[in-house]
Amino acid sequence: MLLKNIRLSLIAILICGSLSAQQDMMLTHFIYNKMMVNPGKTGIDLYNGICATTMYRNQWDKVNGAPNSTVLVVEGNLTKYFPGGIGLSFANDAIGFNSTNTLYLNYSYPIQIGKFGVLGVGVGLGMLNLGMNPTWIPPTSAPDNTLPTSFSATGFDMNFGLYFQGKNFYGGISSTHLPSGILKSTDAVTSYQNAFNIARHYYFMGGYRIDKVGSRNGSVDIQAMGQTDFVKFSAQVNARYIHQLSTDKQFYGGLTFRNADMMAVMAGFTPFKNFTFGYAYDITFLNKLTSVSRGSHELVVKYCYYLPPPPKSKARHPRWL
User: Fold this and answer.
1) pLDDT tens for residues 215-231?
2) Which parts of 142-275 fold into alpha helices (H)?
3) Which of 48, 123, 136, 281 has its CA 20 to 30 A from that of 41?
4) Looking at residue 28, what DSSP letter applies?
5) Which of 191, 163, 141 is nearest to 84 (CA)?
6) What is the mean pLDDT of the chain?
7) Per-residue pLDDT at 151
8) For the purposes of burial, counting CB atoms within 10 Å of the CB of 71, is it exposed (0-12), middle (13-18) or buried (19 or more)?
9) 242/260 Cα distance (integer angstroms)
């Protein structure tokens, strides 16, 4: 009955002729996706390094038309060649017949704040594409011309953020979809015009690391992020225990809690230098999908490459050559 109501609600919204853009995705492993929502983070903690991260989220497993999200983020800070951090991010978020694609080129300019840390002032410029490719199953064989077919709309998009990185803490505020406004698309078959309302989102985030917990090689990492479009507010907190096995190897395990939604368990492993694999399982118990969904799965793979330090040169007196 719940799934039937979801489908009927979707059809009713479509017939009204105005579509509200879906909420920005929320990822349990947001700690690896901060640059996408806050361009000030771009490369701020990478010195002469480049990192690539890909994530996949299957939300509300076993629910027809439930969200599926894919993210690819590449960022670097090659201070030897270029001042500041630069990055590229792509995301696909599919819910039912709807699909949202975003692509941004990010830049962050670092400002040293005394001995406290670095403030990154960042901007992301790109595009946002919203589309629908429905497959209708009418109750009769007669066609219904009021139901839209495939359509798509694309527009310019922009993000802005401030991100402060200290020795063992960070904090940031940002906003996405700054142009907001409405994207319009006309159905090629029915000439039916659809309007997409792009809602501006606001984010805040912060984190703190406590070293030497449990052992000299253990640490606790606590991070939080909240987002709102002034219609809905979502916030989540995660806490991880990280154990350093060696210089190149470590593992982590932790819990995440998201308001009015779920609790998640997360784990990850760095099997060799600069490569990290992580997994999270969301236990849905705070919303109406508890009796239908078996939870959500999330995978993350991250790899970083750092340029080797320049060789040290020693001055020699010609007399001793």
Assistant:
1) 889 999 999 999 999 88
2) none
3) 281
4) T
5) 163
6) 82
7) 74
8) buried
9) 27
Q: For 257-283, give the DSSP string.
A: EETTTEEEEEEEEEEETTEEEEEEEEE
Positive/negative CA dihedral, 146, 151, 156, 160: positive
Cα 303 to the center of its chain, rounded Å: 16
Q: Is 47 helix (H, G, I), strand (E, B) or coil?
A: coil
Q: 68, 94 in Cβ contact below 8 A? A: yes
**Around Cβ 142, how many Cβ atoms within 10 Å?**
6
What token pair was written down for 128?
Answer: 């946002």
Residue 11 has pLDDT above 90, yes or no: no
Q: How far apart are CA 11 and CA 121, in angstroms?
A: 42
Measured in residues, the chain has a length of: 321
Element (H, E) at 51: strand 49-58
CA distance 206 to 165: 10
Question: End-to-end CA distance of the chain, in Å?
Answer: 88
Residue with tokens 């840390």: 117
Q: Left (φ > 0), alpha (ψ -120 to 50) or beta: where does 30 sit? A: alpha
Counting beta carbons within 10 angstroms of the beta carbon of residue 125, is it exposed (0 to 12), middle (13 to 18) or buried (19 or more)? middle
DSSP letter, residue 2: H
- Are 218 and 174 in contact by the 8 Å Cβ rule? The answer is no
Which of the two residues, 139 and 275, has the higher pLDDT score?
275
- The pLDDT of residue 3 is above 80: no
| Two tokens, residue 102 | 């975003």
Other beta carbons within 10 Å of 178: 16
pLDDT digits over 254-288, tens only? Answer: 999 988 777 899 999 999 889 999 999 988 765 56
Q: What is the pLDDT of residue 131?
A: 82
Residue 11 CB neighbour total at 10 angstroms: 12
Q: Give the tokens for residue 223.
A: 């991070």
Mean pLDDT in residue range 202-214? 94
